[in-house]
Amino acid sequence: MKLTGAEILCESLTQLGVRHIFGYPGGAILPVYDALGKSKLHHVLVRHEQGATHMADGYARASGGIGVAMATSGPGATNMVTGIATAMLDSSPVVCITGQVSSKLLGSDAFQEIDITGITMPITKHNVVVSRVEDIARTVREAFVIANSGRPGPVLVDITKDAQQASCEFDWDAAAPKLPLKRVRNSLDQAEFDRAIELLNNAKRPVILAGRGIILSGAMRAFEQFVRTCNIPVAMTLLGIGCFPASDPMNLGMMGMHGEAWVNHAIQESDLLIAVGMRFDDRVTGDLRTYAKGARKIHIEIDRAEINKNVAVDAALIGDARETLEKLTPHVVNPDRGAWLSHIKELKGDSAVRDIQSLPDNGHLYAAHVINDLWKETRGEAIVVTDVGQHQMWEAQYYHHNRPRTLITSGGLGTMGFALPAAIGAKFANPDSEVWVVVGDGGFQMTMCELATVVQEKINIKIAIINNGYLGMVRQWQEFFYDKRYVATPLVAPDFAALANAFGIRGERITQRGDVLPTIRSARESKETVLIDFRVEQEDSVYPMVPAGASLHEMIRRPNNPLVETAIEP
Amino acid sequence: MQTLVAYVENKPGVLNRVSSLARRLNVNIDSLTVGPTENPEIARMTIVAHTDEKGGHRLEASLEKLVDVLLAENISERALLERDLALIKVLADQQSRPHLMELIKVFRARVVDVAPESLIIEVSGTVEKIDGLLEVLKPFGVLEMARSGRISMTRGGDLLRPPVQTAAASEQPVAAS
Ligand SMILES: Cc1cc2nc3c(=O)[nH]c(=O)nc-3n(C[C@H](O)[C@H](O)[C@H](O)COP(=O)(O)OP(=O)(O)OC[C@H]3O[C@@H](n4cnc5c(N)ncnc54)[C@H](O)[C@@H]3O)c2cc1C
Ligand SMILES: Cc1ncc(C[n+]2csc(CCOP(=O)(O)OP(=O)(O)O)c2C)c(N)n1
Ligand SMILES: [Mg+2]
């Protein structure tokens, strides 16, 4: 059957199981849009191409599948850059399809011609220009394989307009992926494996560092089995949250810059760290020279380039987390860890057992109240998509996730403006799930145009704006490190509830602590999107905090502890 | 200094990807050479990078993540043969010529072009040897020089061949839900 390139693209995407495409049209991609109209694919019209990439990313993170974003050449493609970089740094499988000027115009600075493969080379796992209709199906299939294999990542396919318009015979079988013949490395090294078991079975004060690789690997069960067998407490990275239930007594909580104090202390005092699918980000380690100095390290990691990158390890188990854990578990023993576990419990002090809700109401509404109420009311079962800033850290501290893929957040790039569009993508991936956006007043203003997408698509998500009148996380740094010189951080915002109304969305504004729960409750009851503007304490800070470059145990703690640092144990 | 050998797909843009990667990793490339292999679809690169062993490992592992790189190997610690080729155009008048010819002989170089006022000398060998010849030629007046950059090969039975087996490419479903 002869099809145009545009039709072949749509047919291939359909065959690959794609249902939703997040995109924005323009001249160089118009043939594809014409074909899209005749296909069964559902196109979500975004309001900015950055939004399209975040939606595809949110879709991927929530589903474990691949998200697809589409844009025209030139400005459409360059608008995708931030979203592609966001996906790259958090290893999210996204396929971006861009239109390109006709092949005979390539290199001539034609109207809306931009070298998008050149621009995105350092921020994609792979990218490619397709200028022949015969190559479209195979290339798209290859893009899908690359995006979601090994360590996942974004792939961009740039298709010239003439290739979209030309026709050729469409033969799915003949268009099978033909990736280069690469060396297959013998991943698991027996000597390293033996050393790892030796270390595991002799450790006195071990801590497991659980990262996003566990979720990407689908290793949750194998991981739990491993934890039970070796009886070692678990610390989570921000992106690892959800890979192991927060309610499990062996789950200590988050590590790192805004991690729990006792978690960081436990890491510093440990004699063995078992890192699983995490990459020792600088937000996690603090000063590398003083990081867990007394600890040997085992690294379970699929990407060889991550081994010894930031932290030198004693045993590197290269390969998929699930496979490695399944091989490892039968060899580990379950010693008595009573002393070590009770020491960690002591480190917790009393801060963990106090309920912020039971603190006397001093007339102030804190972000912690909002997040804690949200957690309680949703019983920790909602998918929460956060933006970047203080509210992101408070979410991580006060919302206790028990399931993977229920916290969706930009960790590596820390992209403000991520939350709303990513939540739209997450909702498409899980139409029956409750999806909450937790976003700052700053970040929301970066991509709030996507409210129109919410309305046009008639989707039901809930938006909680943690409105502190500041670019709060930056203000906090100015408070701590720049003598409270608040340059360019006080921030004017529109009346968000009225703004929501203007989009045709119900909007609420909350200033009193007592109104938080009822409003969340009523928002949940609604079958439509509701936006709640929580006017919270303006100059609150996230504690504890490891200043950038300081040692992990050198945390700034909350002064006089007017509010606890951490919520009740889940 | 770290020396890596890579086999890559012989197609446009691959060199760009490799150099872009090195720049991203903040690794300075001292020399990068590419040439075809006995298989026209595969090219071989020798990369000499200004970095330590840790940087060499990271570069090797990151290179191998590129779809078009079939194999990358840090061979710095192995027994190596390395060659650089240089063409050096040097001032040569009646007086200096005999002296020049002697030096050329000592360095096992060759004269490949003769003009009334100058000679072109071809020399191949290790970087140190070429640098040495250059040093002694300088007083005569070096007019122009072109160097190929380093190519390296492990010695003896230590073979580094392009891979033949393929990593099975499997398509995965898009939506897990
Ligand atoms: C304002 C702000 C503050 C932050 N503060 C903190 C903080 O206090 N604490 C914190 O932890 N983070 C914090 N972060 C996030 C931090 O920057 C990193 O994004 C995060 O620590 C990375 O977590 P990760 O290593 O688990 O995930 P990733 O960066 O996604 O790394 C996952 C790793 O798993 C590997 N992997 C992938 N698939 C597999 C597989 N199948 N098998 C095995 N391995 C696999 C990958 O190769 C990679 O190395 C903060 C971010 C922001 C924006
Ligand atoms: C696109 C982008 N620009 C700038 C930053 C730097 N930055 C990190 S947090 C932050 C403040 C966020 O303010 P807001 O959205 O109001 O959230 P809050 O910290 O107040 O909760 C800024 C500016 C960023 N992460 N992303
Ligand atoms: Mg704010």
Describe it for me?
Chain A is an alpha/beta fold and 570 residues long. Chain A has three domains: 2-169, Rossmann fold, CATH 3.40.50; 190-348, Rossmann fold, CATH 3.40.50; 359-535, Rossmann fold (3-Layer(aba) Sandwich). Chain A contains 23 helices and 20 strands. In chain A, the strands form four sheets. A six-stranded parallel beta sheet of chain A has the order 3-2-4-5-7-6, sandwiched between helices. Chain A has a six-stranded parallel beta sheet with strand order 11-10-9-12-13-14, sandwiched between helices. The radius of gyration of chain A is 24 Å and the shape is globular. The termini of chain A are far apart. Chain B has 177 residues and is of the alpha+beta class. Chain B has four helices and nine strands. Chain B has helices at residues 14-24, 53-65, 96-106, 127-137; strands spanning 2-9, 28-36, 42-50, 69-74, 80-91, 110-114, 118-125, 142-147, 151-154. In chain B, the strands form two sheets. In chain B, strands 5, 6, 7, 8 and 9 form a five-stranded antiparallel beta sheet that branches. The radius of gyration of chain B is 21 Å and the shape is elongated. The N and C termini of chain B lie far apart (49 Å). The model of chain B has no long low-confidence stretch (mean pLDDT 91). The interface between A and B is large, with 40 and 36 residues. Thiamine diphosphate (TPP) binds at residues 387-391, 414-417, 440-443, 466, 468, 470-474 of chain A.
